[in-house]
Amino acid sequence: MIARWNKALAALAACALFAGGLSACGTGASANGDAENITLVVWASQEDQANEDSWLQEMEKAFQEEHPEYNITWKNQVVASADAAGVAKQDPTVAADVYSFASDQLGTLLDAGAIGQVSDPTMAQLEEQTEGSETMLDTVRGEDGNVYGVPLAGNTWFMYYRKSKFTEEDITSLDAMLAKGKVSFPLTNSWYVPAFYMGAGGELFGPDGTDGAAGVQFGGEIGAAVTEYLVNFRNNPNFVLDQNGSGLAGLKDGSVDVVFTGNWDAATVRANLGDDWGVAQLPCFTLNGQQVQMKAFAGSTVYAWNPYSKHPKAADQFAAFLSGTYSQEKHYTMRSVIPSDVKVAATPEVEADAVAQAQIDTIANTSVVQPSISEMNNFWVPCENFGKAIYNGEVTLDNAAEQTERWMASYESLM
Protein backbone atom coordinates (compact mmCIF):
# COMPACT_ATOMS: atom_id res chain seq x y z
CA MET A 1 0.00 0.00 0.00
CA ILE A 2 2.79 2.39 0.85
CA ALA A 3 4.44 1.86 -2.50
CA ARG A 4 1.21 1.96 -4.50
CA TRP A 5 1.87 5.56 -5.58
CA ASN A 6 5.23 4.72 -7.15
CA LYS A 7 3.87 1.50 -8.67
CA ALA A 8 1.00 3.39 -10.25
CA LEU A 9 3.31 5.94 -11.83
CA ALA A 10 5.66 3.20 -13.01
CA ALA A 11 2.76 1.36 -14.61
CA LEU A 12 1.67 4.49 -16.44
CA ALA A 13 5.18 5.13 -17.67
CA ALA A 14 5.60 1.55 -18.86
CA CYS A 15 2.26 1.65 -20.64
CA ALA A 16 3.17 4.91 -22.36
CA LEU A 17 6.46 3.46 -23.61
CA PHE A 18 4.76 0.31 -24.82
CA ALA A 19 1.82 1.90 -26.60
CA GLY A 20 3.26 5.24 -27.66
CA GLY A 21 0.89 7.31 -25.53
CA LEU A 22 -1.11 7.33 -22.31
CA SER A 23 -4.35 6.95 -24.26
CA ALA A 24 -3.57 3.25 -24.74
CA CYS A 25 -3.71 2.84 -20.95
CA GLY A 26 -7.29 4.02 -20.84
CA THR A 27 -6.46 7.39 -19.27
CA GLY A 28 -8.39 9.42 -21.80
CA ALA A 29 -5.39 11.39 -23.08
CA SER A 30 -4.78 11.49 -26.82
CA ALA A 31 -1.46 10.85 -28.54
CA ASN A 32 -1.16 14.46 -29.65
CA GLY A 33 -0.93 15.80 -26.09
CA ASP A 34 -4.55 16.90 -25.50
CA ALA A 35 -5.79 17.16 -21.93
CA GLU A 36 -6.35 13.88 -20.14
CA ASN A 37 -10.03 13.24 -19.37
CA ILE A 38 -10.39 12.17 -15.77
CA THR A 39 -13.10 11.96 -13.11
CA LEU A 40 -12.31 12.69 -9.47
CA VAL A 41 -14.72 11.80 -6.68
CA VAL A 42 -14.26 14.16 -3.73
CA TRP A 43 -15.62 13.81 -0.20
CA ALA A 44 -16.02 17.02 1.80
CA SER A 45 -18.28 18.58 4.39
CA GLN A 46 -21.66 20.04 3.46
CA GLU A 47 -20.47 23.50 4.50
CA ASP A 48 -17.56 23.40 2.05
CA GLN A 49 -19.73 22.53 -0.96
CA ALA A 50 -23.12 24.07 -0.22
CA ASN A 51 -23.42 25.77 -3.63
CA GLU A 52 -21.48 26.51 -6.81
CA ASP A 53 -19.69 29.42 -5.14
CA SER A 54 -18.59 27.43 -2.09
CA TRP A 55 -14.98 26.85 -1.14
CA LEU A 56 -14.67 23.36 -2.63
CA GLN A 57 -16.09 24.38 -6.00
CA GLU A 58 -13.88 27.46 -6.10
CA MET A 59 -10.81 25.34 -5.35
CA GLU A 60 -11.76 22.85 -8.05
CA LYS A 61 -11.95 25.66 -10.59
CA ALA A 62 -8.57 27.00 -9.44
CA PHE A 63 -6.97 23.55 -9.61
CA GLN A 64 -8.31 23.00 -13.13
CA GLU A 65 -6.83 26.32 -14.25
CA GLU A 66 -3.49 25.38 -12.73
CA HIS A 67 -3.51 21.95 -14.38
CA PRO A 68 -4.53 22.26 -18.05
CA GLU A 69 -3.09 18.78 -18.62
CA TYR A 70 -6.35 17.43 -17.11
CA ASN A 71 -9.95 17.78 -18.23
CA ILE A 72 -11.67 17.00 -14.95
CA THR A 73 -15.20 15.87 -14.22
CA TRP A 74 -15.84 16.50 -10.54
CA LYS A 75 -18.13 14.30 -8.49
CA ASN A 76 -18.55 15.88 -5.08
CA GLN A 77 -20.17 13.95 -2.27
CA VAL A 78 -21.00 14.97 1.30
CA VAL A 79 -18.95 12.92 3.75
CA ALA A 80 -17.74 14.81 6.83
CA SER A 81 -14.12 14.44 7.91
CA ALA A 82 -15.27 12.78 11.13
CA ASP A 83 -16.99 10.03 9.12
CA ALA A 84 -14.52 9.49 6.28
CA ALA A 85 -12.48 6.67 7.80
CA GLY A 86 -15.54 4.72 8.85
CA VAL A 87 -16.98 4.90 5.34
CA ALA A 88 -13.70 4.35 3.48
CA LYS A 89 -12.66 1.27 5.45
CA GLN A 90 -15.85 -0.56 4.43
CA ASP A 91 -14.56 -0.79 0.86
CA PRO A 92 -11.57 1.39 -0.08
CA THR A 93 -11.88 0.35 -3.72
CA VAL A 94 -15.06 2.41 -4.12
CA ALA A 95 -14.17 5.25 -1.75
CA ALA A 96 -13.47 8.77 -3.02
CA ASP A 97 -10.30 9.63 -4.90
CA VAL A 98 -9.75 12.55 -2.51
CA TYR A 99 -11.27 13.02 0.93
CA SER A 100 -10.84 14.90 4.19
CA PHE A 101 -10.46 13.09 7.50
CA ALA A 102 -9.71 13.80 11.13
CA SER A 103 -6.08 12.95 11.88
CA ASP A 104 -6.96 10.66 14.78
CA GLN A 105 -8.43 8.31 12.14
CA LEU A 106 -5.09 7.83 10.36
CA GLY A 107 -4.46 4.45 11.96
CA THR A 108 -7.87 3.20 10.84
CA LEU A 109 -7.23 4.32 7.27
CA LEU A 110 -3.79 2.73 7.24
CA ASP A 111 -5.14 -0.55 8.59
CA ALA A 112 -7.75 -0.51 5.81
CA GLY A 113 -5.23 0.34 3.10
CA ALA A 114 -7.41 3.31 2.20
CA ILE A 115 -4.87 6.14 2.24
CA GLY A 116 -1.92 6.94 -0.01
CA GLN A 117 1.49 8.14 1.09
CA VAL A 118 2.23 11.67 -0.10
CA SER A 119 4.46 12.08 -3.16
CA ASP A 120 7.83 13.81 -3.01
CA PRO A 121 6.44 17.11 -4.40
CA THR A 122 3.62 17.05 -1.86
CA MET A 123 6.07 16.31 0.95
CA ALA A 124 8.16 19.30 -0.09
CA GLN A 125 5.04 21.46 0.02
CA LEU A 126 4.10 20.14 3.46
CA GLU A 127 7.56 20.76 4.89
CA GLU A 128 7.37 24.36 3.71
CA GLN A 129 3.87 24.79 5.15
CA THR A 130 4.92 23.44 8.57
CA GLU A 131 8.40 24.95 8.81
CA GLY A 132 9.08 25.73 12.44
CA SER A 133 5.82 24.06 13.50
CA GLU A 134 6.37 20.31 13.52
CA THR A 135 3.16 19.47 15.37
CA MET A 136 0.96 19.64 12.28
CA LEU A 137 3.39 17.47 10.34
CA ASP A 138 3.39 14.92 13.14
CA THR A 139 -0.42 14.66 13.03
CA VAL A 140 -0.14 12.98 9.60
CA ARG A 141 2.86 10.78 10.31
CA GLY A 142 1.98 7.11 10.44
CA GLU A 143 3.30 4.40 12.73
CA ASP A 144 5.74 3.50 9.94
CA GLY A 145 7.23 7.01 9.96
CA ASN A 146 5.80 7.93 6.57
CA VAL A 147 3.44 10.84 5.90
CA TYR A 148 -0.15 10.50 4.71
CA GLY A 149 -2.13 13.57 3.71
CA VAL A 150 -1.73 17.31 4.18
CA PRO A 151 -3.32 19.17 7.13
CA LEU A 152 -5.90 21.78 6.19
CA ALA A 153 -6.56 23.04 9.72
CA GLY A 154 -5.55 22.32 13.29
CA ASN A 155 -7.83 20.99 16.01
CA THR A 156 -7.41 21.41 19.75
CA TRP A 157 -8.96 23.12 22.75
CA PHE A 158 -7.90 26.12 24.81
CA MET A 159 -9.30 28.61 27.31
CA TYR A 160 -11.92 31.36 27.24
CA TYR A 161 -12.38 33.66 30.22
CA ARG A 162 -14.11 36.74 31.61
CA LYS A 163 -11.49 39.48 31.23
CA SER A 164 -12.74 41.65 34.08
CA LYS A 165 -12.02 38.85 36.57
CA PHE A 166 -8.35 38.19 35.82
CA THR A 167 -5.06 39.88 35.09
CA GLU A 168 -2.75 38.82 32.26
CA GLU A 169 -0.63 37.05 34.86
CA ASP A 170 -3.63 35.27 36.37
CA ILE A 171 -4.52 33.55 33.10
CA THR A 172 -1.17 31.74 33.03
CA SER A 173 -2.08 29.84 36.23
CA LEU A 174 -5.10 27.62 36.76
CA ASP A 175 -4.65 27.97 40.51
CA ALA A 176 -4.63 31.77 40.33
CA MET A 177 -7.88 31.71 38.37
CA LEU A 178 -9.44 29.28 40.86
CA ALA A 179 -8.65 31.77 43.60
CA LYS A 180 -10.53 34.56 41.84
CA GLY A 181 -13.35 33.07 39.82
CA LYS A 182 -15.47 30.09 38.87
CA VAL A 183 -13.60 27.65 36.62
CA SER A 184 -15.64 25.21 34.56
CA PHE A 185 -13.83 22.12 33.30
CA PRO A 186 -15.07 18.89 31.60
CA LEU A 187 -13.56 16.54 34.17
CA THR A 188 -15.67 13.62 32.95
CA ASN A 189 -14.57 14.02 29.32
CA SER A 190 -11.62 11.83 28.31
CA TRP A 191 -10.44 14.28 25.63
CA TYR A 192 -9.66 16.84 28.35
CA VAL A 193 -8.53 14.90 31.44
CA PRO A 194 -5.19 13.74 29.92
CA ALA A 195 -3.97 17.35 29.72
CA PHE A 196 -2.87 17.17 33.35
CA TYR A 197 -1.10 13.82 33.11
CA MET A 198 0.63 14.62 29.81
CA GLY A 199 1.67 17.99 31.13
CA ALA A 200 3.40 16.23 34.03
CA GLY A 201 5.32 13.96 31.66
CA GLY A 202 2.90 11.08 31.19
CA GLU A 203 2.99 9.33 27.83
CA LEU A 204 0.47 7.66 25.57
CA PHE A 205 2.07 4.97 23.40
CA GLY A 206 5.63 6.17 23.74
CA PRO A 207 7.19 9.60 23.28
CA ASP A 208 5.72 10.13 19.81
CA GLY A 209 2.40 8.31 20.29
CA THR A 210 3.07 5.55 17.75
CA ASP A 211 4.24 2.64 19.92
CA GLY A 212 1.17 0.60 20.76
CA ALA A 213 3.17 -1.76 22.97
CA ALA A 214 4.23 1.13 25.23
CA GLY A 215 0.65 1.55 26.43
CA VAL A 216 -0.63 4.27 28.76
CA GLN A 217 1.92 5.61 31.23
CA PHE A 218 0.05 7.97 33.57
CA GLY A 219 0.93 6.15 36.77
CA GLY A 220 3.74 6.11 39.35
CA GLU A 221 4.39 8.81 41.91
CA ILE A 222 3.87 11.64 39.45
CA GLY A 223 0.63 10.14 38.17
CA ALA A 224 -0.63 9.77 41.72
CA ALA A 225 0.28 13.40 42.43
CA VAL A 226 -1.70 14.51 39.36
CA THR A 227 -4.69 12.51 40.53
CA GLU A 228 -4.44 14.15 43.95
CA TYR A 229 -4.36 17.54 42.22
CA LEU A 230 -7.53 16.65 40.32
CA VAL A 231 -9.25 15.54 43.53
CA ASN A 232 -8.42 18.91 45.08
CA PHE A 233 -9.46 20.66 41.87
CA ARG A 234 -12.84 18.95 41.93
CA ASN A 235 -13.31 19.77 45.64
CA ASN A 236 -12.44 23.44 45.20
CA PRO A 237 -15.58 25.54 45.74
CA ASN A 238 -14.75 27.47 42.59
CA PHE A 239 -14.73 24.35 40.41
CA VAL A 240 -17.76 23.79 38.17
CA LEU A 241 -18.24 20.63 36.12
CA ASP A 242 -18.69 21.43 32.44
CA GLN A 243 -21.02 19.04 30.67
CA ASN A 244 -23.72 19.37 28.03
CA GLY A 245 -22.94 23.05 27.43
CA SER A 246 -23.27 24.10 31.07
CA GLY A 247 -19.99 26.01 31.00
CA LEU A 248 -21.08 28.24 28.12
CA ALA A 249 -24.43 28.82 29.77
CA GLY A 250 -22.60 29.77 32.95
CA LEU A 251 -20.62 32.42 31.09
CA LYS A 252 -23.90 33.98 30.06
CA ASP A 253 -25.63 33.96 33.45
CA GLY A 254 -22.48 34.93 35.37
CA SER A 255 -22.02 31.67 37.29
CA VAL A 256 -18.85 30.73 35.35
CA ASP A 257 -15.76 32.79 34.51
CA VAL A 258 -13.53 30.26 32.67
CA VAL A 259 -14.30 27.50 30.17
CA PHE A 260 -12.12 25.13 28.18
CA THR A 261 -13.26 24.44 24.63
CA GLY A 262 -12.24 25.16 21.04
CA ASN A 263 -12.80 27.49 18.12
CA TRP A 264 -16.21 25.92 17.43
CA ASP A 265 -17.61 27.74 20.48
CA ALA A 266 -16.01 31.13 19.79
CA ALA A 267 -19.20 32.79 18.53
CA THR A 268 -21.18 31.60 21.56
CA VAL A 269 -18.51 32.82 23.98
CA ARG A 270 -18.46 36.25 22.35
CA ALA A 271 -22.25 36.45 22.45
CA ASN A 272 -22.41 35.38 26.10
CA LEU A 273 -19.62 37.66 27.38
CA GLY A 274 -19.87 40.63 25.04
CA ASP A 275 -16.83 42.89 25.25
CA ASP A 276 -15.65 41.06 28.38
CA TRP A 277 -14.49 37.93 26.57
CA GLY A 278 -10.88 36.80 26.51
CA VAL A 279 -9.09 33.80 25.05
CA ALA A 280 -5.67 32.24 25.61
CA GLN A 281 -3.59 29.08 25.38
CA LEU A 282 -3.71 26.66 28.30
CA PRO A 283 -2.44 27.68 31.75
CA CYS A 284 -0.07 25.92 34.13
CA PHE A 285 -1.06 24.16 37.35
CA THR A 286 0.89 23.64 40.57
CA LEU A 287 2.20 20.12 41.15
CA ASN A 288 4.49 19.34 44.08
CA GLY A 289 5.30 23.04 44.36
CA GLN A 290 6.28 23.36 40.69
CA GLN A 291 4.45 24.97 37.78
CA VAL A 292 3.43 22.32 35.23
CA GLN A 293 2.03 23.16 31.82
CA MET A 294 -1.31 21.64 30.85
CA LYS A 295 -1.11 20.01 27.41
CA ALA A 296 -4.16 19.43 25.23
CA PHE A 297 -4.49 16.90 22.46
CA ALA A 298 -3.70 18.40 19.05
CA GLY A 299 -4.90 17.01 15.75
CA SER A 300 -5.81 18.22 12.30
CA THR A 301 -8.33 18.04 9.52
CA VAL A 302 -6.48 16.50 6.58
CA TYR A 303 -6.92 16.02 2.85
CA ALA A 304 -5.57 12.78 1.42
CA TRP A 305 -5.82 10.56 -1.64
CA ASN A 306 -7.05 7.02 -2.06
CA PRO A 307 -4.44 4.51 -3.32
CA TYR A 308 -7.23 2.77 -5.27
CA SER A 309 -7.80 5.90 -7.35
CA LYS A 310 -7.61 5.40 -11.11
CA HIS A 311 -5.77 8.72 -11.26
CA PRO A 312 -3.22 8.59 -8.41
CA LYS A 313 -1.06 11.48 -9.60
CA ALA A 314 -3.98 13.88 -10.03
CA ALA A 315 -5.53 12.71 -6.75
CA ASP A 316 -2.31 13.34 -4.83
CA GLN A 317 -1.94 16.73 -6.49
CA PHE A 318 -5.50 17.78 -5.73
CA ALA A 319 -5.33 16.64 -2.09
CA ALA A 320 -2.16 18.72 -1.71
CA PHE A 321 -3.82 21.68 -3.47
CA LEU A 322 -6.88 21.58 -1.19
CA SER A 323 -4.61 21.95 1.85
CA GLY A 324 -2.14 24.30 0.17
CA THR A 325 -1.38 27.89 1.14
CA TYR A 326 -3.80 29.45 -1.35
CA SER A 327 -6.65 27.11 -0.37
CA GLN A 328 -6.12 27.76 3.34
CA GLU A 329 -6.18 31.51 2.71
CA LYS A 330 -9.50 31.15 0.91
CA HIS A 331 -10.86 28.79 3.57
CA TYR A 332 -10.13 31.36 6.26
CA THR A 333 -11.62 34.19 4.21
CA MET A 334 -14.73 32.29 3.19
CA ARG A 335 -15.43 30.19 6.31
CA SER A 336 -13.14 31.53 9.07
CA VAL A 337 -11.40 28.15 9.35
CA ILE A 338 -8.15 28.71 11.26
CA PRO A 339 -5.19 27.75 9.04
CA SER A 340 -2.41 25.31 9.85
CA ASP A 341 -0.10 26.77 7.18
CA VAL A 342 2.58 28.88 8.88
CA LYS A 343 2.53 31.53 6.15
CA VAL A 344 -1.23 32.02 6.33
CA ALA A 345 -1.06 32.04 10.12
CA ALA A 346 1.38 34.95 9.90
CA THR A 347 -0.87 37.16 7.77
CA PRO A 348 -2.19 40.36 9.43
CA GLU A 349 -5.79 39.10 9.29
CA VAL A 350 -5.03 35.89 11.17
CA GLU A 351 -2.64 37.57 13.62
CA ALA A 352 -5.43 39.99 14.53
CA ASP A 353 -7.81 37.10 15.24
CA ALA A 354 -7.53 36.36 18.97
CA VAL A 355 -9.22 32.95 18.72
CA ALA A 356 -6.94 31.92 15.87
CA GLN A 357 -3.90 32.96 17.86
CA ALA A 358 -5.05 31.03 20.94
CA GLN A 359 -5.40 27.90 18.85
CA ILE A 360 -2.09 28.42 17.07
CA ASP A 361 -0.32 29.13 20.37
CA THR A 362 -1.86 26.09 22.02
CA ILE A 363 -0.81 23.78 19.20
CA ALA A 364 2.70 25.25 19.21
CA ASN A 365 3.26 25.54 22.96
CA THR A 366 0.77 23.63 25.08
CA SER A 367 -0.23 20.48 23.21
CA VAL A 368 0.67 16.87 22.46
CA VAL A 369 -0.16 15.21 19.15
CA GLN A 370 -3.16 12.96 19.67
CA PRO A 371 -2.14 9.37 18.85
CA SER A 372 -3.82 7.95 15.76
CA ILE A 373 -2.88 4.29 16.12
CA SER A 374 -5.69 1.76 16.57
CA GLU A 375 -4.78 1.12 20.23
CA MET A 376 -6.01 4.62 20.99
CA ASN A 377 -9.59 3.40 20.54
CA ASN A 378 -9.22 1.54 23.84
CA PHE A 379 -8.03 4.58 25.76
CA TRP A 380 -11.18 6.68 25.93
CA VAL A 381 -13.71 4.77 28.04
CA PRO A 382 -11.43 3.89 31.00
CA CYS A 383 -10.24 7.51 31.06
CA GLU A 384 -13.80 8.79 31.05
CA ASN A 385 -14.71 6.41 33.85
CA PHE A 386 -11.73 7.57 35.91
CA GLY A 387 -12.74 11.20 35.48
CA LYS A 388 -16.25 10.33 36.61
CA ALA A 389 -14.84 8.48 39.61
CA ILE A 390 -12.90 11.60 40.62
CA TYR A 391 -15.95 13.80 40.21
CA ASN A 392 -18.21 11.40 42.11
CA GLY A 393 -15.80 11.22 45.04
CA GLU A 394 -14.84 7.59 44.55
CA VAL A 395 -11.21 8.66 44.08
CA THR A 396 -9.94 10.49 47.15
CA LEU A 397 -6.68 11.86 48.46
CA ASP A 398 -6.31 8.71 50.55
CA ASN A 399 -6.69 6.27 47.66
CA ALA A 400 -5.44 8.39 44.74
CA ALA A 401 -2.27 6.34 44.20
CA GLU A 402 -4.10 3.02 44.41
CA GLN A 403 -6.90 4.13 42.11
CA THR A 404 -4.45 5.56 39.57
CA GLU A 405 -2.63 2.23 39.37
CA ARG A 406 -5.92 0.37 39.01
CA TRP A 407 -6.77 2.69 36.14
CA MET A 408 -3.44 1.92 34.49
CA ALA A 409 -3.92 -1.82 35.05
CA SER A 410 -7.29 -1.66 33.30
CA TYR A 411 -5.47 -0.92 30.04
CA GLU A 412 -3.30 -4.05 30.18
CA SER A 413 -6.14 -6.29 29.02
CA LEU A 414 -7.23 -3.85 26.34
CA MET A 415 -3.97 -3.01 24.57
UniProtKB/TrEMBL annotation:
Record-level GO cellular component terms: ATP-binding cassette (ABC) transporter complex, substrate-binding subunit-containing
Transport among keywords: yes
GO molecular function: maltose binding
Metal-binding recorded as keyword: no
Record's signal peptide: 1-24
Pfam families: SBP_bac_8 (PF13416)
The entry's keywords: Signal, Transport
Any GO BP annotation: maltodextrin transmembrane transport
Superkingdom of origin: Bacteria
Xref: InterPro entries: SBP
Stated family: Belongs to the bacterial solute-binding protein 1 family.
Protein name in the entry: Family 1 extracellular solute-binding protein
Organism per entry: Bifidobacterium pullorum subsp. gallinarum
